Write a sequence for this structure.
């Protein structure tokens, strides 16, 4: 079925009350039952570091100062306006920024760290000025938001209060690795170890293809109810094959982003990522190499969906763009 503009019914992820009350319990079949951020338990053992001044000793490095003070070397660099390669000299006075610091262990992800303290991962990104591609390192010290201590204290309460979205997965879903390199992506549905980041494609190759064909339910952008849709929604029967829009590597495949239920994120290189939501079955795993047109799952009504459909997004450098501007026109 072709996509006709006249089928525009609603825009936004929660354009109607019916959508918001979607079938949140719709079952999703996934190969990888636990996302990588749940495979490595994070212990909330942050250390409180008082603000101070440190006198650099002979032969010391900025990272060594960070280890001795308990503060992150990146935070110390920002507090002292140090530029890469962060050279310091004997006798130099460094301001040590105080705060609560979490030391990253191998396999931990940003999402898991945020969940352990009951704070938004985006806030940790902001206060630490984390650069792309947001991969943490073993031993890195992250400054936590000031309100972390006031969040729910029990693991159950923190888990119940914690919510993630696509941007959280893209910026905080990669594990901190203790390895110097990353293994090549596999074309087989075999999940990467929980301490290994995915290998992103070197560059984007070719254009995008439609992931499925059906009536266009909602368009990109703001809707009549004020909600914003970061993609498009396509009406297709439950069980319809979902095809990947371009060559890439699977960055996430699971059902832990509540609003979308069964969700797959594919990294295409050059900052391009595609998203496929509301799937009833997910047939790929994180780190798997996929080819344009390959079936990666089946459509459904999982997540906050009131009917079977496919939610499809394209993002460039984390910013959602209108998929209709990048898909073949003759199929709209």
């Amino acid at each position: 079925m072709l996509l006709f503009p006249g089928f525009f019914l609603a825009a936004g992820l929660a354009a109607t009350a019916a959508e918001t009350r979607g079938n949140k319990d719709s079952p999703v079949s996934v190969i990888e039952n636990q996302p990588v951020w749940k495979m490595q338990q994070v212990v909330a053992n942050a250390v409180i570091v008082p603000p101070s001044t440190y006198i650099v000793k002979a032969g010391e490095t900025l990272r060594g100062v960070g280890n001795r003070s308990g503060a992150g070397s990146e935070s110390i660099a920002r507090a002292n306006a140090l530029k890469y390669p962060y050279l310091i000299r004997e006798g130099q006075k460094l301001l040590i920024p105080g705060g609560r610091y979490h030391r990253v262990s191998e396999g931990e992800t940003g999402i898991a760290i945020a969940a352990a303290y009951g704070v938004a991962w985006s806030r940790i990104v902001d206060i630490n000025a984390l650069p792309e591609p947001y991969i943490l390192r073993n031993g890195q010290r992250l400054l936590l938001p000031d309100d972390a201590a006031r969040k729910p204290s029990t693991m159950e309460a923190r888990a119940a209060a914690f919510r993630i979205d696509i941007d959280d997965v893209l910026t905080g879903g990669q594990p901190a690795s203790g390895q110097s390199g990353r293994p090549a992506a596999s074309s087989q549905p075999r999940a990467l170890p929980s301490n290994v980041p995915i290998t992103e494609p070197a560059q984007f190759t070719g254009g995008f293809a439609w992931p499925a064909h059906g009536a266009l339910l909602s368009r990109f952008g703001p809707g009549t109810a004020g909600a914003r849709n970061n993609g498009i929604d396509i009406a297709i029967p439950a069980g319809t094959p979902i095809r990947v829009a371009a060559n890439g590597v699977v960055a996430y495949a699971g059902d832990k982003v509540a609003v979308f239920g069964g969700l797959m994120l594919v990294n295409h290189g050059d900052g391009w990522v595609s998203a496929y939501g509301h799937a009833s079955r997910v047939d790929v795993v994180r780190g798997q190499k996929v080819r344009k047109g390959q079936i990666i799952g089946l459509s459904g009504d999982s997540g906050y969906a009131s009917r079977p459909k496919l939610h499809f997004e394209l993002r460039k450098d984390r910013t959602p763009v209108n998929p209709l501007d990048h898909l073949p026109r003759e199929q709209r």
Remarks:
- DSSP finds eight helices and 18 strands in the chain.
